[in-house]
């Protein structure tokens, strides 16, 4: 095999040229094929993102209920933040509903 960089014959079985110390593309391709053939642990980033966005939605509704019972301004703001996160990550309509309800609860809290 000859080095694609300098053109000299490569004696190293690992695909490393002794003249210019460049690795052969064939060796790199063989390593890439070997890595593709190996079974790998598949983690689904969407699963954790989905459960996290559900958690924000649940927290939003929990904070909304707590804002109706006591400390409407504090829990209303927390509801608004959770609504904003839900709007960005999960469902825009759900987020808008949470944010609108939180604004209503905050206004009522200031009036009472």
Summary of the model, kept short:
This protein is mainly α. The protein has helices at residues 25-37, 45-69, 72-89, 92-111.
What's the SSE blueprint?
Elements: H1 25-37, H2 45-69, H3 72-89, H4 92-111
Helix pairs in contact: 2-3, 2-4, 3-4
Give a structural overview:
The chain folds into 2 domains: 1-40, no CATH class; 45-111. 68% of the residues lie in helices and 0% in strands. The chain has 4 helices and no strands. The longest helix has 25 residues, at 45-69. The radius of gyration is 29 Å and the shape is rod-shaped. Mean pLDDT is 76; it is low at 41-47. The chain crosses the membrane at residues 58-86, 93-111. Keywords: Membrane, Transmembrane, Transmembrane helix.
On the 0-100 scale, what is the average pLDDT? 76
Structural class: mainly alpha
Radius of gyration: 29 Å
How large is the count of helical segments?
4
Helix % is 55-70%
- What portion of the residues fall into strands of 2 or more residues? under 5%
* Alpha-carbon distance between the two ends: 84 Å
Number of domains: 2
- Specify the biggest β-sheet: none
Number of DSSP strand runs: 0
Low-confidence parts, pLDDT < 50 over ≥5 residues?
41-47
Globular, elongated, flat, extended or rod-shaped: what is the shape? rod-shaped
Succession of helices and strands: HHHH
Q: Which oligomeric state applies?
A: single chain
